[in-house]
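Ticket reopened. Same input as before:
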Amino acid sequence: MGDLLRVESLAKRFGGIVATDDLTFGIPEGELLAVIGPNGAGKTTLIAQLSGQLVPDSGRIYFAGREITSVPMHARSALGLARSFQITSLFLDLSVLDNVALAVQAHAGHSFHFWRNARHEPELRDPARAALTRVGLGARADWPASALSHGEHRQLELAMALASGPRMLLLDEPMAGLGPEESARMVTTLRELKKELTILLVEHDMEAVFALADRIAVLVYGRLIASGKPEDIRSNPQVRDAYLGEQEAVHG
Amino acid sequence: MTAKFNLNTAVGVAILIALLLLPLYVELTGSRFLLTLFTRIVILSIAAVSLNLILGYGGMMSFGHAAYLGIGGYAVGILAFEGITSGFVQWPIALLVSALFALVIGALSLRTRGVYFIMITLAFAQMAYYIVAGLARYGGDDGLTIEKRSQFFQPLNLSNKTQFYYLCVTLLVASMYLVWRIVNSRFGMTIQGARSNDTRMRAIGFPTYRYKLVCFVIAGTLCGLAGALLANHTDFVSPAMMYWTRSGDLIIMVVLGGMGSIFGPLFGAVALLVLEEVLSGITEYWQIILGPLLLLVVLFARGGIDGLLGKVRRKVQHG
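Engineering reply: fixed in the latest deploy. New output:
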């Protein structure tokens, strides 16, 4: 197979709405696959099933050669599949470093340790600092998380996903709500990360998608209508009809 | 982050030193009353320190914390009444019963959030209050006089007021040290993470309910110790020890002193009880003065006394 993540005949419906419709695809190790599609195409539902937040109605998910369809969320992240959240949800009254250190701690066994000062434990602080440096927040480590800008919150989210030392990242709209400058910084960060990690990126920002993706999958009404290299997708008439044209009409 | 000089700690340590020297002053001036007052302040500080662990660090707004004062106190009182006066029996039982009570209340109430949590902890504490008030054999509403204080080994003699006072101060310092260790440990980080964003904690794989429950039990046990001390201090226990207004007093101490700081509960307990003492000497309606004072602190000094001291330090450094 050779794919790090593989999805076979995945299906999920909510009442009469088909959110995921017989989806089959794979992501080879080291690839950045961008999943695009109009609103309601089932992109977030897909990520939720991959991360274990939602259970699919049918179909199978494999990660690193192992079936994980019924493996719960925290166990998946222990296997190396990390997810960042679309809506930033941080520990605002703790320091930036504390935020990431907590994410490290989540993967370091139980936390019934009552005596040793956790803020002086290199096993927690060193990986946390490394993750912050990777996303470009190294200099902000000791700031309270509440003092960061919106764009920096997104980077912090990313650092928290990295903190578990994952093999693959599931990113749900990391550019949402970012200004042009912040988006550009995020693209730079992700370009660095994709050298070492396999990434599935759900994103509305087409500029970012075409700048980053090795391959693009287009989802419409839960169904995969096209998948291929960015230049192929750009010229695919079906995609233009279903999605890109509509986007351009809205924005242009 | 680093261990720089800071005013909060300096004032906190100064208060502790003053507490240690107080018996000397009492010896010189002969005002035994001060020793009694401060023994009480020190004991209630321990209760406030324990509440701060769950309220300040854990964000658990327990409105029934005085229940453990009563439970710890009644454990000592009832055992003494039944002829068991050894502190080595009384105190472990006081702690154990408090821990069990906290385990039951916590297990049920921590499934709820916000106002419901406040109401459930309050309801349980009031339940305990009415149960104790109904114990006819142990004085019911009127309370129970303790003929003999807890017996420990010689030369430790709790009937000696100075010795007892020093025991209380020692236990206060020990409980502050304990809380300091706990809140900075992995466990403490977990608790603070749950205060800050419980949903996210669960999403990244922390079973927060378990951690909060253990924290709740630690706090209840520590407050049970304060209850055992209080019973020995007053030689008397009554349901009033655990009435909801007493729980309110403890919350005021923590909020006034500064939630989520190590010295905050000490500042709050000393400030509230000394003010109460001074103001009630001036007028019968002292609460009319105390009320607005608290309002001002809540409105303008959100970090309480500890927060104010922190601000002073920053001004000094920058100005």
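Chain A touches chain B at residues 73-74, 77-78, 85, 89-95, 98, 101-103, 105-107, 111-119, 121, 124, 142, 160 (CB under 8 Å). Chain A has a mean pLDDT of 90. Please confirm and we'll close it.
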